[in-house]
What we know:
By secondary structure, this protein is an alpha+beta fold. It has three domains: 5-51, Uridine Diphospho-n-acetylenolpyruvylglucosamine Reductase, domain 2, CATH 3.30.43; 61-171, Uridine Diphospho-n-acetylenolpyruvylglucosamine Reductase, domain 3 (2-Layer Sandwich), CATH 3.30.465.10; 178-291, Enolase-like, domain 1, CATH 3.30.390. Helix content is 37%, strand content 24%. It contains twelve helices and 14 strands. It has helices at 12-22, 35-41, 77-81, 84-89, 91-98, 103-108, 111-117, 125-130, 148-151, 229-235, 242-255, 266-291, and strands spanning 5-7, 26-29, 48-51, 61-63, 69-72, 134-139, 142-147, 152-154, 157-158, 165-171, 178-185, 196-204, 211-219, 226-227. Strands 4-5-10-6-7 form a five-stranded antiparallel beta sheet. A four-stranded antiparallel beta sheet has the order 11-12-13-14. Strands 1-3-2 form a three-stranded parallel beta sheet, covered by helices on one side. 44% of the residues are buried. The model has no long low-confidence stretch (mean pLDDT 96). Flavin-adenine dinucleotide (FAD) binds next to strand 2, helix 2, helix 6, helix 7 and strand 10.
Amino acid sequence: xxxxxxxxxxxxxxxxxxxxxxxxxxxxxxxxxxxxxxxxxxxxxxxxxxxxxxxxxxxxxxxxxxxxxxxxxxxxxxxxxxxxxxxxxxxxxxxxxxxxxxxxxxxxxxxxxxxxxxxxxxxxxxxxxxxxxxxxxxxxxxxxxxxxxxxxxxxxxxxxxxxxxxxxxxxxxxxxxxxxxxxxxxxxxxxxxxxxxxxxxxxxxxxxxxxxxxxxxxxxxxxxxxxxxxxxxxxxxxxxxxxxxxxxxxxxxxxxxxxxxxxxxxxxxxxxxxxxxxxxxxxxxxxxxxxx
Length: 292
Ligand SMILES: Cc1cc2nc3c(=O)[nH]c(=O)nc-3n(C[C@H](O)[C@H](O)[C@H](O)COP(=O)(O)OP(=O)(O)OC[C@H]3O[C@@H](n4cnc5c(N)ncnc54)[C@H](O)[C@@H]3O)c2cc1C
């Protein structure tokens, strides 16, 4: 591993000041489960490493007054996985977090790190997209809120400026009669990235049958995690039948741009988008009916 200088600041202000001082050659370190791997491979060679773990008050999971949730960027995926607050309502996020690596990885890996690595195949973005998540970013000029759907700009790329950090993830409150589900396919059963990830969120109309609102979030089948608005519009106001499911699967398949790599071929990925879209919608629907 190339030599670097290590800093362990204790406040976000100090983190931002250090990033400003050292520019593009500096990297922040959260759980290190991506960054240290990239540094050991020589893919990333920061001259300055700024450890975030001593900054107090950056790991939290709290309910907002409106009934949504705020999650500090340094919250670990394990904390998300076992959170009763999230389990009860934001189920697909819990399922996504649970899919990451092993329990040892999840004990270190943070939500902020999972988003800022910006892998198209990461397991938390698809469900966060279905919950209309927003991220709070902070830099020298202050704070800004960015919809997660606008955060990712390409594989490994996002809208963060050089001296900016991700502070927290905001989940708006969910309407009643809402259910969600995340499904992942990977080559091995554990410790592997998804070659397809599908999250669905469904809100039922008051009579408990018609789809009042739908969200579909996909991972690993486009340059960034993304929503498929065409499916969401297609299903709004419809019942969930074999026919509407089949149409939704077709539209989802047409919307993706999968690649062929070591994990799967583009054709197989596209086929699995159809299968998983149907299955995730069915499970989200069943979960919504249980809430009704
Ligand atoms: C064996 C193994 C298996 C894995 N399996 C999966 C998997 O199945 N699914 C999956 O999604 N991921 C998987 N991962 C990847 C990894 O665990 C996650 O992406 C993790 O959530 C990254 O978080 P971290 O805290 O470790 O980030 P770090 O490695 O510390 O940082 C990652 C990147 O984000 C930046 N960063 C971190 N926090 C912030 C912040 N608050 N603001 C700005 N920038 C920030 C860092 O500078 C760095 O560029 C796996 C990793 C390993 C080693």
